[in-house]
Amino acid sequence: MLEIYIARHGQTEWNQEGRLQGWLNSPLTSKGIESAKHLGKKLDAVRFDAFYSSPSPRAYETLEIALNKPKEHFYLDERLKEIGLGAWQGKLIDEIKKEYTTAYHDYYHNPEVFTLDGAENYFDLKMRVSHFLKEVTEMHFTKDQKKKVLVVTHGVTLMMMRLLFNEGQIKDLSAYGVADNAKLHVYQYDGSKYQPVLEEV
Q: Which three-class secondary structure string do you get for the chain?
């Protein structure tokens, strides 16, 4: 049995300002730090076999705060980065809506056709996230023992994980919504498929 605990990073300054981050980064806010501490309290009694994080500072710093451990204890995996958004990164969402009206609508409502020069599309994201999940499952699943791993990642990347756990299609991605900062999602793998155990909102 394998349980994967997944959380989005804590709130950042750009989250607060309404800017898209993608592969760029901004510091955690005081609210983000507090939510990371609260996440740590919820995980305090759980014995994990491994910790994984996006290499973005907002992700591994959330994990450092939650667990009170330095990042040297975690596996930092490039496949857990947020979707790369090219020229949108660092821009205010209101600016993007005006300048890229169609692409922005597709980004949220028509994910199967979303495209932007210099950015990833959702098929790119699906490929790298699915490779990560396959590898983690193969490394940690055992039939006779329950293993637990913790993952800290990003809003859209977490959406893609949930889609993959539910064996959905990219056209259905927007139905999952972007997870709130530092909220916990737990999925259990029994050797054949993943089932949701906890979905905090």
A: CEEEEEEECCCEHHHHHCECCCCCCCCECHHHHHHHHHHHHHHCCCCCCEEEECCCHHHHHHHHHHHCCCHHHCEECHHHCCCCCHHHCCCEHHHHHHHCHHHHHHHHHCCCCCCCCCCCCHHHHHHHHHHHHHHHHHHHCCCCCCEEEEEEECHHHHHHHHHHHCCCCHHHHHHHCCCCCCCEEEEEECCCCEEEEEECC
- CATH class, range 2-199: alpha beta
In this predicted model, what pLDDT tens digit does every residue of 144-189 receive, in sequence order? 899 999 999 999 999 999 999 999 999 999 998 888 999 999 999 9
- Which residue ranges make up each domain of the chain? 2-199
Q: Is the pTM of this model over 0.85?
A: yes
